[in-house]
Amino acid sequence: MDTSSSGLPIKRNHSECSYSGGEESGPIESGAPDGALLLLTAPTANADDEDEPGPREEDEMVRESLSLDVVWRGNERYPLRIPKYATILSVKALLEELTGVDAESQKLLGLVRGQLPRDTDTLVGLGVSSGTKVRLLGTPLCDRLQPRDSNPWESEPPPGPGDDIGLGSDRRQMRSQVLSNEWQAQLQRIVAETEVRILNAPRAGRKLVVLDLDYTLFDCKNVSGNVADMARPGLHEFLAAIYPHYDLIVWSQTRWHIVESKITLLGMLTHPHYKITTALDISSMFTVHVLRNGREVDHQVKPLEFIWSRFPGHYGRHNTIHIDDLSRNFALNWQNGLKIRAFKRADTQLRADTELYKLTRYLLQISALPSLEALDHSQWQGRK
After folding, report:
1. Distance CA 383, CA 365 (A)
2. CA proximity to 135, closest of 90, 68, 81
3. Locations of Acidic residues compositional bias (predicted)?
4. Tens-place pLDDT, residues 318-366
5. Average pLDDT over all residues of the chain
């Protein structure tokens, strides 16, 4: 495989997952307790074993896919292209993103004659063939709840005159100023109460990259329905290239089963060249009261202090970078935040998106620094 000057492999087919080159990260000890994680694909060989799964095995287990023609509300159609080893819960997770019908309320008719499949069943185990027509029954959550005022924090505010999105805009003008210290009590509560599923033990001497999922690594609203195309171009090469220097934590503002389904479908739990330390969901977040652009608003935040409290001695303010497409998630840790352009409409922008390739160069450039606290990550694209 060819490589760029930055050491990042140049993938000729974005749906492949192979990688060559890079520093060896050494053996990893698994810290996952029994039953901590329900894998949503059929089991594969352990990446720690000497006989790691080769490209053919990984392609067979993760990349082979089949198509489903999902019909909802009589005439709304959602063509899906999904790995055949995916579970029914994974299918429901994708449909929840596309339709707003939460996974627990969905009924999928047509996969098994005369009965409803279990969430833990796999498509291949049920004998589902490509092209199967599936009828989705369910009502979106928003239709079952009372209407509420629109949330001004559902997306980033539009840029003002002279703002250069993602580059040198003055972040001080856009930052949320937290107006209360009540968040400290909320932090103590979630540190004490929230379960953290350790998938792979932290490694000594590594910095930490905290990664948002939706619109950062994954286009959750991709109308093509093809899971392979929902991944941001260069996803696996990016993670494999930085993994020798950084531990990886995924943090998504959604429920655990949705997070788990997505990272499993994307092949992020079984890749032989990188490992995810843990994945966090919305239960590790809380709401803060802030002043932004002259308005007082409430919004949720991803407090890095939660990670630092749960992994003392490994991660801290000095060695953590939080990558997200929404800067509001940095409200308590602005210096650690790195805003990335949102990856949306992957069905039309797939070939044009090079964000992860550029981000790889930046992270590798700063990986040897003893501390990251003096960096202004808002300038990351302009660093030479």
Report:
1. 9
2. 68
3. 47-61
4. 999 999 998 889 989 999 999 999 998 665 655 678 899 999 999 999 9
5. 76
Q: Which long-range contacts (CB under 8 A, 24 or more apart) does 55-62 make?
A: 55/16, 55/17, 55/18, 58/17, 58/267, 58/270, 58/271, 58/272, 59/16, 59/17, 61/85, 61/270, 62/17, 62/267, 62/270
pLDDT at residue 170 is higher than 70: no
Give pLDDT, residue 212.
96
C-alpha 294/C-alpha 297 separation (Å) is 10
Give the C-alpha separation, 357 to 327, whole Å. 21
Handedness of CA 311, 33, 41, 70 (dihedral sign): negative
Helix (H) / strand (E) element for 297: namely strand 295-301
* Among 366, 380, 332, CA closest to 175: 332
Provide, rounded to the nearest whole percent, the portion of the chain with pLDDT above 70: 70
Relative to beta strand 246-251, strand 207-211 is: parallel
Residues 206-240: pLDDT tens digits? 999 999 999 999 887 775 666 767 889 899 999 99
Q: Which of 61, 84, 67 is nearest to 269 (CA)?
A: 61
Q: How far is it, in rounded angstroms, from Cα 97 to Cα 257?
A: 12
- The stretch 39-60 carries a mean pLDDT of 40
| Residue corresponding to tokens 């490994």 | 314
**Which ranges in the chain belong to alpha helices (H)?**
55-58, 88-99, 141-144, 171-174, 183-193, 227-230, 235-242, 256-265, 304-310, 346-349, 355-366
Place of tokens 């997770």: 93
Cβ contact 285:292 at 8 Å: no
| Alpha-carbon torsion, ordered 83, 89, 95, 100, to 10 deg | -160
Query: Cα 166 to chain center, whole Å?
Result: 19
